[in-house]
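Reply to dn_fold:

You asked what the input looked like. This is it:
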Amino acid sequence: MSPPLPAVFCDNAKTTFKYGDTITDNIASWIKKGFVSGPFDQAPEKLFRVNSILATKQKEKVRTVLNVSLPKGSSFNDNIDELKLEKVKMCTAKKFSYTIAEAGKNALMCKFDMQDAYKNVPVPLEELRLQGFQWLGKFFVETRQIFGSKSAVSNFDILGQTIQDIAIIKSNTPRKWVHRTLDDVPVTGPDNSNFCEKFEETYRGICSKCNIKLAENCDKFDKAFGCSKYGKVLGIWFETKHMRWSLPKEKTEKTKAKIAEVYWKNSTSLLEMQQLMGSLNDITQMCDFLRGFKKPLNNVLSYLQRNENKTAKLNSQAKKDLVVFWNFLSDTDNWHPIARRPCSPPIHKISLTSDAAGCTRDTQKDEQVGFASIGIDAKGLIFFASQTFWETSVLQEGKDNKGKNLGSKTTTLEFLGILIPFLLIPEKLCNTHITVEVDNISCVYAWQNKHSREDEMASFW
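and this is what came back:
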């Protein structure tokens, strides 16, 4: 913490009165578990800070939260130097899928979930006065990490990482099989090993000795489960018998509803686009090729972020891209193959080289403008060569089929040079490691991002 914070008294949020009975029960439960001290008839410490409490509705429960971001400018969170906090590392469903692919067919998985995650980390005694609140005329002190404080995630992550490290060492489990995102610890391992079973036994034992409660295994293989070939990890269903993954049904239906809402509206707001793109990002993290259908949608989002009080209308290309996502989610077979981790190509590989001469301001009408492609096999021999030129009439007119100025188009031409071999000689490239070589940095970024600055480029993917 920075310089000492003064005493303060903040009123509770209006939502607390709506869910008064639930909040009273929650506070009583905290006291019973040792997370809160009280009730006190008067402030138990000098310079005691009475923070505001608020109630947030989450699915089937109401969460009581201490709001330590008030008053603005002199709150608990304002006084934390974020640069001094430990950096938090989190696994993603995509990274976990790579580990499953490495473990192989019929790999075993298990997942642990710490209960009352942040509440497992006590607060230094000198900071107790900062975590006060008032309810029903009585004073209370939260004695553990606060959900919503800037430092809570980092402080809990240290505990979670320590427990994980000890379990890895004691169980002699290779670190690559064990992942973690805050209180979730998913583990996998080859079917012919006992890494999964040994880690599960060791991790549960350590948590028990540290008085850390874990969620009970779920019959639906959802929140937590023991060694299995099927289960939900970080919001994605995995099944290793056939090496597949799937989006949860409820997430699929919610995303389709958001797509339909934005698609049919005359204009959309910033909040609606943020919610939509957040759902689409969940899909594209698992399906990399779908990233190429986000560019026009991201353009709309960027516009709304710059103009928060305005609405925007989706153009035809953005709507076409939404149809792609809709069709993907509507596939009757909702299971998709688990992809392997991207890696560098082997020493012996096929190389495809593309180069282009684009239109410039000084290009003469009778000059040839186009691209060339060359394919070199693993022995260094040329097995493919192609040269293509733009029609002279196109250059003379100087406009594309939409009436726009033609421009340089060098990136477009070099991309065409890359794609031509895949169209003309697919049988020679199938199931083969290929390196694509270009001297246009825009091509490199466009390939990585699955789009260029022009909407038309999305059609290439």
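Residues 152-171 form the longest helix (20 residues).
Hope that clears it up.
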